[in-house]
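Students often ask why inverse folding is considered easier than folding. One informal answer: many sequences map to the same fold, so there is more than one right answer. In these notes we will look at a single instance of the problem. The structure comes first.
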């Protein structure tokens, strides 16, 4: 996708009033990533030097150490690489969500992202297609949350 093309966007649901879980704090290399989430856009870094695609955002490329790899818009689609069903809340704010699903999601563009999947635990299997949605949890960030296609 070129810079001229508009990136695909997903729905952003305002969860600021009810969210009691961890809240991202945009800083440094991840600022652009979190700003895009508020617009319903999932972004990943794609190195111009070596072609490495990476997510979570970092100040250097994990493939060649180039500084500040640029961001690209993702389709917001992926497949379940692996998952776990959490029956005991691992973070504050998740107690009323148990059981909940956390999955390693292989994005269509290559990076793998660990994310919450908004579905019943019995409704997910390895290889299932997913698409991203966003839960706005602060004025500065919306969490990427995946749902089955």
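Output (designed amino acids):
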């Amino acid at each position: 996708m070129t810079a001229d093309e508009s990136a695909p966007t997903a729905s952003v649901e305002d969860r600021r009033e009810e969210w009691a879980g961890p809240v991202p704090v945009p800083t440094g290399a991840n600022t652009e990533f979190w700003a895009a989430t508020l617009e319903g856009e999932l972004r990943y870094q794609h190195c111009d030097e070596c072609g490495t695609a990476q997510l979570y955002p970092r100040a250097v490329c994990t493939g060649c150490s180039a500084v500040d790899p640029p961001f690209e818009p993702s389709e917001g689609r992926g497949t379940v690489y692996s998952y776990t069903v959490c029956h005991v809340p691992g973070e504050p704010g998740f107690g009323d969500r148990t059981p909940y699903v956390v999955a390693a999601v292989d994005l269509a563009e290559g990076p793998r992202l660990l994310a919450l999947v908004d579905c019943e635990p019995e409704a997910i299997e390895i290889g299932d297609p997913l698409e991203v949605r966003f839960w706005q949890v602060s004025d500065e960030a919306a969490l990427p949350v995946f749902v089955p296609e």
